[in-house]
UniProtKB/TrEMBL annotation:
It comes from the Eukaryota. One of its GO terms (cellular component) is extracellular matrix. This is Protein Wnt. Gene3D superfamilies: 3.30.2460.20. It holds the Pfam family wnt. The lineage of its organism: Eukaryota, Metazoa, Chordata, Craniata, Vertebrata. It comes from Cavia porcellus (Guinea pig). Signal peptide: none annotated. Ligand for members of the frizzled family of seven transmembrane receptors. Its main location: secreted. The gene is WNT11. InterPro entries: Wnt, Wnt_C, Wnt_CS.
Length: 354
């Protein structure tokens, strides 16, 4: 009996891959939108890759948002690769959008991170675009209700996070709201993790201040609520990735929910990333499970983290090679006001996994 759900799952996968019904994060393919596509006419929406019909509809009715959403898709890829540069799974497969491999098609921990990051990024991008005045439909965020602290006053332009969250969720959750496609458990997982991403973004909102006053005395500070850089949000989500919870789809009360697989009976928390399928260790190449392996990956001989040669190479050992780096050196300051430098070359020893 135990094997059956897995067979079903596998069949669902095969079906999903063939018919492309698991749309999920296929909208990240927007990152490849050619710059020549002006995106200023509603008929351009049909030419965009990776969108479900509800997203095409949103594109038509919110055309002014699309440049921001295309930008967000590019940012997701950058932030994911940066956050996982020191890991065996380094997010390089996200570039395959919209035709992902199993590492991102299945309900893995890695896909949990990417869904959360995608949801956070699109809302981050829209909120930031509001602030910079790029969107005709929205303005600065609200003035906070609480007092700004002694010597401070609220001012500036706050990031309009509520608008970012609203429009971001509409767009990025649309594929999971399509009826009768994919498995229910996968949809629940994707929606949950997307919400975790938005929750992390909400939690990241911070008070930022700027000094004023006579010759920089900072007697008055203007403050507003702003979002941190996306890389900080990605780092927060990576921490949640590392402590993600494995869940199963199980009846609880009258409906089926995602509940932690381990014995402690509790609902999943709004702050935790969840996954349904364990990932391989990503040591060896195995396309069947979406693993690229770590052969030829660079490792760090002096680190004791996940990028250490020991962990990265899974104990297989590593090969040294020398690399030449060119740097600016012997820099001199000339009065007034420029700097001259020389170019120096030095060799460094680097290591790649066997
Ligand atoms: C859309 O943008 C293109 C290129 O920038 C421009 O030539 C065209 O006139 C624009 N169309 C509309 C309807 O604004
Ligand atoms: C942005 O924040 C303001 C509050 O200052 C609010 O009135 C407005 O509805 C928000 N959304 C948009 C789209 O401007
Ligand atoms: C990420 O991993 C892939 C597969 O192992 C590898 O080909 C690629 O070079 C890696 N990228 C970086 C930036 O290390
Ligand atoms: C290797 O790791 C050490 C310790 O974490 C760090 O100081 C160093 O910059 C790393 N080297 C490279 C090439 O990343
Ligand atoms: C390496 O490990 C030691 C102790 O095990 C720890 O104190 C230190 O912070 C670690 N360094 C890095 C770069 O992770």
């Amino acid at each position: 009996m135990r094997a059956r759900p897995q067979v079903c799952e596998a069949l669902l996968f095969a079906l999903a891959l063939q018919t492309g019904v698991c749309y999920g994060i296929k909208w990240l393919a927007l990152s490849k939108t050619p710059a020549a596509l002006a995106l200023n006419q509603t008929q351009h929406c049909k030419q965009l890759e990776g969108l479900v019909s509800a997203q095409v509809q949103l594109c038509r009715s919110n055309l002014e948002l699309m440049h921001t959403i295309v930008h967000a898709a590019r940012e997701v890829m950058k932030a994911c690769r940066r956050a996982f540069a020191d890991m065996r799974w380094n997010c390089s497969s996200i570039e395959l959008a919209p035709n992902y491999l199993l590492d991102l098609e299945r309900g893995t921990r890695e896909s949990a991170f990417v869904y959360a990051l995608s949801a956070a990024t699109i809302s981050h991008a829209i909120a930031r675009a509001c602030t910079s005045g790029d969107l005709p439909g929205c303005s600065c965020g609200p003035v906070p209700g609480e007092p700004p602290g002694p010597g401070n006053r609220w001012g500036g332009c706050a990031d309009n996070l509520s608008y970012g969250l609203l429009m971001g969720a509409k767009f990025s959750d649309a594929p999971m709201k399509v009826k009768k496609t994919g498995s229910q458990a996968n949809k629940l997982m994707r929606l949950h993790n997307s919400e975790v991403g938005r929750q992390a973004l909400r939690a990241s909102l911070e008070v930022k201040c700027k000094c004023h006053g006579v010759s920089g005395s900072c007697s008055i500070r203007t403050c507003w609520k702003g979002l941190p850089e996306l890389r900080d949000v990605a780092a927060d989500l990576k921490t949640r990735y590392l402590s993600a919870t494995k869940v199963v789809h199980r009846p609880m009360g009258t409906r089926k929910h995602l509940v932690p697989k381990d014995l402690d009976i509790r609902p999943v928390k709004d702050s935790e990333l969840v996954y349904l399928q364990s990932s391989p260790d990503f040591c060896m190449k195995n396309e069947k499970v979406g693993s690229h392996g770590t052969q030829d990956r660079q490792c760090n001989k002096t680190s004791n983290g996940s990028d250490s040669c020991d962990l990265m190479c899974c104990g297989r050992g590593y090969n040294p090679y020398t690399d030449r780096v060119v740097e600016r050196c012997h820099c001199k300051y000339h009065w007034c006001c420029y700097v001259t430098c020389r170019r120096c070359e030095r060799t460094v020893e680097r290591y790649v996994c066997k």
